[in-house]
């Protein structure tokens, strides 16, 4: 929407589309959503055939009171301080509620989670994004009796720990997708996930989880044989730890004085990790921003997409890619030597095949972006040495390369 959304616009939509089944409202940067909770409630109650509703920038709703027997998909974003929460939709199968990242958000997520089991019995896909997500909210969700849930995404919950993971694995037995990005789970929680869903889980997203290590990731890859997508972006980070305080004995006026806990200023080197991923079915692996990885071995015959953006400490001499199906490699922000090593391994590994235009997906597989077209002359005239690809090979469909001069997406025919 280029213009503002208000009661008048909703009334026009209701009048002009009496048999509306799907409505999606996305806002332009300059537009404002002035819709209130009363107006949304009235609109949904009048649209008896509405099955899909997606509305952006819902900060002015104030409360949710949604009753519909036809609604199956509901997405609301930018929610804030919801004082009342009622979603009575017995046929609702997909629910996405994205809250604004404000510290003063007063929404009671615990009560909200608890009510889902009584009013949305057929819910299969649940996405909640809030910095106020906590263990207690997950416990309430676990007691909501949503046995049919197959996709669970709880984002940005820094107060979500392994205790919440234990509740998830007890309450939901058939999860195909689990996204706990932004949480504080550890390798123990990752181990519980791996043991609970070996026969169902195909997508596991744990981006920005600072307490997991490469060991936990490797165990998950081994114990989840059906996994097709794994995202550990910005989780394996090299954090410099300060050196422990030292004691010091000094001479003062002819005597000996003991000075304890004198801080030293010498900078400590970060602790690096090696990562070994060997998997028969994995198709997409995202390690963006994993600065703690200095050694990587990937043996995945079905892997088609590998994201190594900003893996700044990955050692080219400690990299081994055995992925004959690899099509897209993302290396924005990587060193030139690493880019060269990836290029050489990929070119030497691939066998001939029919070319096709590549597409990109986000880590969660939700959006597709067509790779822009480049004429061969544009590729050949590029002055960036780091982006030059010698001896083009037919199976290398797209390599994303970044250097100080330009970013080039090359297509090899």
From TrEMBL:
Organism classification: Eukaryota, Viridiplantae, Streptophyta, Embryophyta, Tracheophyta
Domain of life: Eukaryota
InterPro entries: F-box_LRR-repeat, LRR_dom_sf
GO CC annotations, alphabetized: cytoplasm
Database matches in SUPFAM superfamilies: RNI-like
Protein name: F-box/LRR-repeat protein 17
């Amino acid at each position: 929407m280029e213009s503002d959304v208000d009661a008048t616009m909703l009334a026009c939509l209701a009048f002009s589309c009496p048999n509306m089944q799907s409505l999606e409202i996305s806002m332009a940067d300059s537009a404002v959503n002035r819709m209130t909770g009363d107006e949304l409630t009235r609109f949904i109650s009048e649209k008896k055939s509405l099955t899909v509703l997606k509305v952006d920038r819902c900060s002015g709703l104030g409360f949710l009171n949604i009753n519909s027997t036809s609604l199956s998909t509901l997405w609301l974003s930018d929610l804030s301080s919801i004082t009342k929460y009622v979603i009575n939709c017995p046929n609702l199968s997909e629910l996405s509620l994205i809250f604004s990242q404000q510290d003063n958000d007063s929404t009671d997520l615990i009560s909200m989670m608890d009510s889902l089991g009584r009013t949305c019995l057929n819910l299969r896909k649940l996405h909640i994004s809030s910095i106020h997500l906590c263990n207690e909210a997950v416990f309430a969700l676990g007691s909501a009796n949503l046995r049919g849930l197959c996709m669970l995404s709880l984002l940005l919950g820094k107060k979500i720990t392994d205790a919440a993971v234990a509740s998830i694995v007890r309450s939901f037995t058939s999860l195909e997708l689990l996204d706990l990005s932004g949480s504080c789970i550890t390798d123990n929680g990752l181990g519980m996930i791996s043991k609970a869903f070996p026969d169902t889980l195909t997508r596991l997203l744990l981006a920005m989880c600072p307490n997991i290590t490469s060991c936990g990731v490797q165990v998950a890859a081994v114990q989840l044989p059906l996994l097709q997508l794994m995202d550990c972006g910005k989780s394996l980070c090299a954090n410099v730890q300060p050196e422990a305080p030292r004691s010091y004995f000094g001479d003062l006026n002819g005597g000996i004085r003991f000075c304890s806990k004198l801080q030293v200023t010498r900078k400590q080197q970060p602790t690096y990790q090696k990562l070994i991923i060997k998997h028969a079915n994995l198709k997409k692996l995202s390690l963006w921003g994993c600065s703690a990885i200095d050694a990587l071995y990937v043996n995945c015959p079905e892997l088609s997409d590998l994201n190594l953006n900003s893996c700044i400490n990955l050692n080219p001499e400690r990299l081994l890619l055995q992925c004959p199906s690899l099509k897209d490699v993302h290396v924005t922000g990587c060193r030139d030597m690493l880019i060269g090593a990836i290029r050489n391994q990929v070119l030497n590994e691939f066998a001939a095949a029919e070319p096709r235009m590549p597409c990109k997906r986000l880590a969660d597989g939700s959006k597709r972006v067509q790779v822009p077209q480049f004429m061969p002359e544009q590729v050949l005239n590029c002055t960036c040495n780091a982006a030059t690809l010698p001896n083009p090979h037919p199976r290398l469909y797209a390599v994303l390369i970044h250097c100080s001069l330009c970013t080039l997406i090359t297509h090899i025919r």
